[in-house]
Amino acid sequence: MRRLVVITGASKGLGKGLTNTLLSRDQYDLVTMSRSDIEQSDHPSVKHFKVDLIQPGDYRWLRDICEDYSKVTFINNAGVISPIGFIGGFSVEEIERNIYTNQIAPFSIINALVKNNFKYELSIINITSGAANKLIKGWSLYSVTKAAVLNFLEHLKDQHSRIKIFSFDPGVLDTEMQLLIRSSSDKNFPDVANFQAMKNEGFLKDPIVQAEEIVNRFLD
């Protein structure tokens, strides 16, 4: 039976790379989620849902889809780094969007997937960041939400030992998020010059290459 893979943030960057890589293997069905359409929406193996993760939901519809499969993998990929800056300078709306996207949405999706004695073999691939484990000035919300997901998954591992859980840091990717980081002022992000230099010197990683590594390591 084909394996189902659920991917958040599938419209660009690493999520787009994961979607293309998995479809090229011809052994996966995909549920993709993003705020915008994806190029692969019409592919017969793809069910795409336009979802803004800032909107609360119980994701019962996702659980219903998963129950048709014996193997399900959730790739927690979607994330926002904004707002970049220092505590005291954020709007409530900025705080809410960051926390809902990076933390509450994956908590809610995972909660739905493990509800009521789920029968499928479940694995979770969490796309994390070095910012989850160290203080990067100007990235407070991004850092603490990434760390919260790691902590949440430790509790899940203790509760359900049969779930396979992986966290993978893809490194600094050449994506729109990095473009946003490089466009920050040094007032809000003191280390911005270092990230600009990484781009100029060709040190950013290709999201397609990293997507292939994730699939090879954790799925194939």
Short structural summary:
The chain is of the alpha/beta class and 220 residues long. It has helices at 13-25, 60-66, 92-113, 140-159, 176-182, 192-200, 207-218; strands at residues 3-8, 28-34, 46-50, 71-76, 121-127, 164-168.
Strand/helix succession: EHEEHEHEHEHHH
Do you know the CATH topology? Rossmann fold
CATH architectural arrangement: 3-Layer(aba) Sandwich
Strand order of the largest sheet: 3-2-1-4-5-6
What are the salient characteristics of this protein?
220 residues, alpha/beta, Rossmann fold, globular
Explain the layout of strands and helices.
Blueprint: E1 3-8, H1 13-25, E2 28-34, E3 46-50, H2 60-66, E4 71-76, H3 92-113, E5 121-127, H4 140-159, E6 164-168, H5 176-182, H6 192-200, H7 207-218
Helix pairs in contact: 1-7, 3-4
Kindly describe this structure.
By secondary structure, this protein is α/β, with parallel strands linked by helices. It has one domain (3-171, 206-218): 3-Layer(aba) Sandwich (Rossmann fold). The protein contains 7 helices and 6 strands; from the N terminus they run E-H-E-E-H-E-H-E-H-E-H-H-H. The protein has a 6-stranded parallel sheet with strand order 3-2-1-4-5-6, with helices on both faces. Strand 4 (71-76), helix 3 (92-113) and strand 5 (121-127) form a beta-alpha-beta unit. Helix 1 (13-25) crosses helix 7 and helix 3 runs parallel beside helix 4 (140-159). It starts with a strand and ends with a helix. The model has no long low-confidence stretch (mean pLDDT 95).
